[in-house]
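Observation: inputs received (chain + fe (ii) ion).
Thought: call the complex predictor directly.
Action: predict_structure
Action Input:
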Amino acid sequence: MEKYKIDRIQNSLKENVSEHRYIHTLGVMKAAVNLAKKYNEDEKSAYIAALLHDYAKNFSQKQLNEYMTNNNLYADEIMINAYQLLHGKVAAHIAKTEFNIQNDDILNAIEYHTTGREKMSKLEKIIYLADFIEENRTYHGVEELRKVAYEDLNKAVLQALNNTIKYVLSLEGLLHLNTIEARNSLLIEL
Ligand SMILES: [Fe+2]
Ligand SMILES: [Fe+2]
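Observation:
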């Protein structure tokens, strides 16, 4: 992708997310490119997917719902209730329509970074994981996950999914079926 296109995305992102989110995004880009190098994935794809993954993260519930309705996007009951999950789907749609990203693997990596899903591609796994291990993250267990991330991609994604599931359970929150399916399919893959 041409540099001016990347600049355009970056400037637009800056206007749409908080500074905190922007710094997080830079961290995810760095981690995603490193993981792509390690696991022989296309670095450019990892870079673009990471750049756009949280484009809609600071949208309000109303903004997300309006975007979904205006663009005829489908959300299941869990997504409607755990509305933060929608920011992946909305960001993927913006990437396609606003920034003309046509690579389905990139679009899926953006869309499914919020839940994971069954049989994730390598790029999907990289973006999912980079989101958890980027350098600004400080939660308990992040050091261990960073280490595993550069040893075994599947094991690391499984660990990230387990952490997420435990966290959602601790909050008595809604768990999306995609997250369970992502975990099951990884366990079978391993
Ligand atoms: Fe996100
Ligand atoms: Fe993120």
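Thought: report the result.
Final Answer: The CA atoms of residues 27 and 121 lie 21 Å apart. The chain has one domain: 3-189.
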